[in-house]
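user: can you give me the structure for this one chain? C-alpha cells are fine.
assistant: on it. calling the predictor now.
[tool input]
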Amino acid sequence: MVFDPSVKLNSGNSIPVLGLGVYLTPKDVADSIVQKALDLGYRHVDTATYYKNEQDVADAIGAWLKKNPTVKREEIFYTTKVFDTDHGYEATKKLIATSLEKAKAIDYIDLFLVHSPQSDYEKRHGTWLALQEAVESGKVKNIGVSNYGIKHLKELLAYPDLKIKPAVNQIELHPWLSREELVKYLKDEGIAVEAYSPLARGQRINDPALEEFAKKYGKTNAQILIAWSLAKGFIPLPKTVTVSRLRTNLESLNFKLSDEDIKKLDSLDEYGVTGWDPTVYPLDNEKIGGK
C-alpha cells in the first residue's frame, strides 16, 4: 500500500511530501535500502552527485519498476544535485549529461537542484541557464536550489534571462532550526520547502521535549520530528539505512500534532545548525561571514 501523498510544485508537477534521503549511503547499501523503501510505499528518493551513489539509486529504482510493472515511472520522484565544483554553464551542462547517463535506467530526472550557492554570480548564473535548458530538453522535469538564503534567491530571481523559477529550496530544518524568515520568503514566492536533516542528525533525538510528545502520542521521537516538519508544510527527507526505521518514518504521515504542540516545538528554535550552513554564504560584494 502506498501512503505517500503529493503536493503541487510551481512547475505544475507533483512531488511526494515525504522522501528518503541517501546522503553518503554506501553503494552496496543504496540498492537494497531504496528497493525496500519503494516496497514500503516511498515514492521519493533524494540523492546528489556529491553523495557518490546516483547510479546505484537510479539503478535500484529501475530494477524495482521492472519487478513492479503496475507502478509507472511517473509515480517515482528522483532528485539529484549540482555540487559547487561543477558550477558554471559548461561545467553544469557536462554534469547534467553525466547524471542523465547514470539515470538511464529511469529515463529522466524529476528534480535537479543547485546544491549550494558557494561559488560566484557568473557561475551560479551559468548553472541556472544550463538547468533551464535541461528542462527545455524534457530530460529534467523540475529545477531548484538547496542551501540558498534570501539574498541568493533574490539574486536568482533577478536574472535577466530567468525563464523558470526554482520549484524547491532544500534546507536544513527541524524544531531547533526553523528559519522562519527564510521559510516565509519561500512560501510567499511559491517555492516549495524541502527539509533535510529533519531529525537533526540524531543530535537531539533524546531531547526531553521529544520524549514528552512521543509518550503523549504513542510515537517515536523521530516520528514526532517528521510530523512537525509535515505540519509546517515542509517536505522532509529523513535518511536511514535501517529497514525498521524506513517503516516508522513513513508512518509519520498517519497522525498529526495539535496546534498547541506544534507551537511548543517551535519554541525550541535556537538556530541550531547541525552540519554546514551555506545559506549565509556571501554574495560577491560581501565579506566572508556577511549576512
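assistant: here you go. Residues 6-278 form a domain with the TIM Barrel fold (CATH 3.20.20.100). Residues 121-137 form the longest helix (17 residues).
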